[in-house]
Each structure stands twice: as C-alpha cells, then as structure tokens.
Amino acid sequence: NDYMYPTDGERNALGVGLAVPLGDYRYYRLDANHVSYQPLSDDLILKLTADLGLAKGYSGKELPFFKRYFGGGSGSVRGFGNKTLGPLYPNNKAKGGELSVLGSVNIISPAYFFDNSDNMRMSAFIDTGNIYEKTSSIKLGDLRMSAGVSFAYLSPIGAIGIYWSTPILKKSGDIIENFSFSLGTGF
C-alpha cells in the first residue's frame, strides 16, 4: 500500500536463471522471496521475510564465484560482518555458497521521539539464516541469529538505515558487526 513504508499486504517473488551451454558457464539458479506486512495496531506493523536461494553448476561445471550467495550484514543477518556468513577462505574472505536460507521478523513503528516522523521509522528485529557452500552440507545447527533495533530515514537523496544488533546464535570465529548503516534501503 506504500512503496517506501508499507503497512499491509505481501509480496512474493520467484526467480529462475539458467546459463545455457553456449558459453563457458553452466549453472542454474532458483530464488524465492516472501515479504508480508500486517498491522498490529494503528502504529505497529509486523514484517516477516523469508528468502531461499539455490544455485548449482551442471554438466561437470562449478557454480561461478560471481553467482554464489553471500550473507551477513544489512539485507541479510544483521549483527554479522558483511558477506561473512557461510564458508570462508583462511584469510576470512567469503567463499559464497550454493544455498542461502534467510528470514527476519520486524516490529516497525514511527520514530516517536521526533516531532515530525512522517519519513522516519524504527524497528525491533530478529534475523536468522546462513549460507551453505554445498546443498549437501545443510545443518540447521549452523543457522545464525541476531536481534537488534534499527532506524530508517527517507531523505531527499534516498533511504538511510542505521542498525545496532547483537548475535544470539553464533559460532567461534564469526565476524561480528554490531553497528552499521545502509544507503538506499529502509524497511
């Protein structure tokens, strides 16, 4: 019902990609996304998101690096370093993976502490998910989870988001990023 600050409704998307055998790459990619908004009261909105992605090489070809999934940070599981979920190389750079599983629960409200909060929102959230190198390596015990608060402002140059988050399901060696901001993304 509103592009920048929806309060009711849902969006579902399904994406399919296939690299045909005419080039050097042979892979397929399937992406499913669900976002729903449900009013809880005049001021509170429940936002639920779920993202599932699967990509694999075929005919003996590996999935190209630039088509792998990466997770962690804004738009994924906040509280973890950008692109640090899932398998890492020894230098802590992301390998990416064939499978992405992400979800989020947000309670969104106006930014009450400002007089004119028409273009500002804040939320409390829980994010969960992970990136798996191979579809055969899925373990639910590897899921990460974080909880936090965020603030979004729709500025004249676009949306600006700020969040503070702390991991509540993490593993030794995870790269933590409690505070971050984003441009171009709100709620």
UniProtKB/TrEMBL annotation:
Keywords: Membrane. This is Bacterial surface antigen (D15) domain-containing protein. Residues 1-187 form the Bacterial surface antigen (D15) domain. Transmembrane segments: none annotated. Gene3D superfamilies: membrane protein fhac: a member of the omp85/tpsb transporter family. Its main location: membrane. InterPro entries: Bac_surfAg_D15.
